[in-house]
Write a structure and sequence with these properties.
This protein is 18% helix and 28% strand. With 61 residues, it is α+β, with helices and mostly antiparallel strands.
C-alpha cells in the first residue's frame, strides 16, 4: 500500500540545512506513520594523496 507523505516547510528547511555543504556523504530521512521523525547526516572527507613511485621502498631502522 502506497501512502503520500506531506512535508511541512519546516522539514524542507531542515533537510536543506543538512544538504548544505555536503560534498561526499549521505542524508537519510526516517519516516514513521507517514511523518518525518529524524534526519541523519553522515559526511565523508576525501583527501588527495600523493602517489609515491612504485620503485621507492621504505627504509627500516
Amino acid at each position: 500500500m502506497s501512502r503520500t507523505v506531506e512535508v511541512a516547510d519546516e522539514w524542507l528547511n531542515r533537510i536543506k540545512e543538512q544538504l548544505a555543504g555536503v560534498q561526499y556523504g549521505v542524508v537519510q530521512i526516517t519516516i514513521h506513520n507517514g511523518q518525518i521523525v529524524q534526519i541523519d547526516r553522515t559526511e565523508r572527507s576525501r583527501f588527495d594523496t600523493e602517489k609515491s613511485p612504485s620503485s621507492a621502498k621504505r627504509q627500516r631502522s
